[in-house]
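Design a sequence for this backbone.
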């Protein structure tokens, strides 16, 4: 069910720049978010995980976040067992356990030298 395909660097830069031109002056503008490989791989190694969904989110102070959720073969979200389930850090979570991810490193603030 999950989809994805390669895109050229030229098209990626054009689309990212289109977004920056349209939204770059917004107070809460967020261009991208960097997540550590081991955290994303932990999610992708969840039982039955076949894909990854990324949600745009806004916290109570108006700060933009991306929330990453693993998905099954039918595109359904793989959710933790309860609404408040986050008792452990990612590294403390057993392999195969469902997790949700946020708090990557935001750009602007921490943008790469070769930013799209």
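Sequence:
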């Amino acid at each position: 069910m999950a989809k994805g395909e390669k895109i050229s660097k030229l098209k990626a830069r054009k689309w990212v720049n289109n977004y920056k031109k349209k939204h770059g002056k917004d107070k809460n503008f967020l261009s991208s978010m960097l997540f550590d490989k081991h955290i994303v791989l932990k999610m992708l190694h969840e039982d039955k995980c076949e894909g990854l969904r990324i949600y745009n989110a806004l916290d109570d102070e108006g700060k933009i976040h991306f929330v990453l959720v693993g998905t099954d073969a039918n595109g359904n979200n793989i959710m933790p067992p309860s609404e408040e389930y986050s008792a452990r850090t990612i590294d403390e979570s057993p392999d195969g356990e469902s997790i949700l991810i946020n708090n990557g490193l935001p750009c602007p603030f921490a943008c790469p030298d070769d930013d799209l």
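The radius of gyration is 16 Å.
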